[in-house]
Specification:
alpha/beta, 15 strands, 408 residues, two-stranded antiparallel sheet
């Protein structure tokens, strides 16, 4: 089987839309979470929700990355994905030494099309107006992946995976499998989502799981998640092809695990999450003692953080689990649903590449019941004797996905 490495990175996120800006925000703890402000489609711009904060991508101009025709035929989620994918492809010099017929596009997206669909439904139900003729192509779940294919000229396999909050992680994992097996020699993979619409905000408000202020993962006083949007993309290729063309290598993907809780549609199970962690380590042929960092799903809800902590203990064993550095970056970029696993994978790759572990912004007093070594207040150096990192995603529906990466 092929060894698989990361040679291109691209992002459009609330904490930066260039790699340098994202990296600076990640390690300085510069959050993109801010007051909601006006929401398009809401009465007088006020969404009427109990929470006050969300993480929005600021100053994004799609015409910097695509033609007017493409921008007209897409909505925000797809546009973020197109921009991030182009950045990753350019960063890796993807066309240098790669056949576009032998390259895949595997993207994760959970809430595609909401910003196009909601105004059309409002017009239909309230005024019986005719739908815009591009509504169908704007709201297709695979619109982003298809447009990335057109934009980059890639004619290999093109797929969209939708598994709620694990979508981006599942997409990267599936791309990893395809490159490792030799089905393709390279892949553009990641996640994109833009769900911050009036209807979406109101729906999440009804679930009572969004923080009234902002998320504080693993904190003793945590009270919920904070919603966000964004995109993060990667170019994956075989180690052989990367070395042959003298490409920069940012990390090696060494394992992937996935599982289903088969338990409850919203309440997580530590058994299912622990199984995915164990499968990722087994796939990577890594022992618990080699794990030097875990980028946790860490939503900041009571149930998720407690369940994830329990899963880490079950998978690694209580002695090691209590000593592995853990952080959640959601308090910086928010929870962008289908994109969040990809954004967190980007944080994990950068942690390995720079040898620095990001801290959990906004969390000062860690919940002692969790018994985790949560990084707070300042970054921490990566232990060179523990070069493997895990990136966890635990989604509604009980769908778990875990990537194992190694410092190259």
């Amino acid at each position: 089987m092929n060894r698989v490495v990361v040679t291109g990175l691209g992002c459009v996120t609330p904490i930066g839309s260039t790699l340098d800006d994202f990296t600076q925000s990640l390690f300085s703890g510069t959050t993109g979470i801010a007051p909601i402000g006006e929401v398009e489609g809401a009465p007088e711009g006020n969404p009427g929700v109990r929470f006050t904060q969300m993480a929005r991508v600021r100053d994004f101009d799609p015409l910097q990355y695509m033609s007017t025709g493409t921008a007209t035929a897409t909505e925000r989620a797809a546009q973020l994905g197109i921009a991030a994918a182009r950045k990753a492809a350019d960063h890796a010099n993807l066309r240098d030494g790669h056949s576009l017929e032998d390259t895949a596009i595997i993207l994760g997206c959970s809430c595609a099309g909401r910003s196009a669909e909601e105004p059309q439904l409002a017009g239909l139900y309230l005024r019986n107006t005719r739908a815009h003729p591009l509504t169908v192509v704007r709201t297709m779940a695979n619109s982003g992946a298809a447009q990335v294919s057109i934009d980059l000229g890639i004619t290999g396999p093109v797929l969209t995976i939708s598994t709620a909050c694990a979508s981006g992680t599942h997409a990267i994992g599936q791309a990893f499998h395809m490159v490792r097996s030799g089905m393709v020699t390279a892949a553009v993979a990641g996640g994109h989502d833009a769900p911050l619409t009036f209807g979406f905000l109101r729906a999440w408000d009804s679930m009572r799981v969004v923080s009234a202020t902002r998320c504080r993962p693993f904190s003793a006083d945590r009270d919920g998640m904070t919603l966000g949007e964004g995109a993060a993309m990667f170019v994956l290729e075989t180690l052989e092809s990367a070395q042959a063309r003298n490409a920069a290598i940012y990390a090696e993907i060494v394992g992937f695990g996935m599982s289903a809780d088969a338990h409850h549609i919203t309440q997580p199970s530590s058994d299912g999450a622990a199984k995915a962690i164990r499968m990722a380590m087994k796939d990577a042929q890594a022992q618990p003692s080699e794990i030097g960092y875990i980028n946790a799903h860490g939503t900041g809800t009571q149930a998720n953080d407690a369940t994830e902590a329990e899963a880490i203990h079950k998978a690694l064993g209580p002695e090691i689990a209590a000593r592995v550095p853990v952080s959640s970056t959601k308090s910086l970029h928010g929870h962008s649903i289908g994109a969040t696993g990809a954004i967190e994978a980007l944080a994990t790759v950068l942690a390995l590449y720079h040898g620095r572990l990001p801290f959990t912004y906004g969390t000062t007093e860690v919940d002692p019941a969790l018994n985790l070594d949560v990084i707070t207040e300042t970054p921490r150096p990566l232990d060179p004797n523990r070069p493997v990192a895990l990136s966890n995603s635990l989604a509604f529906g009980g769908l778990n996905a875990v990537l194992a990466l190694r410092r190259f």
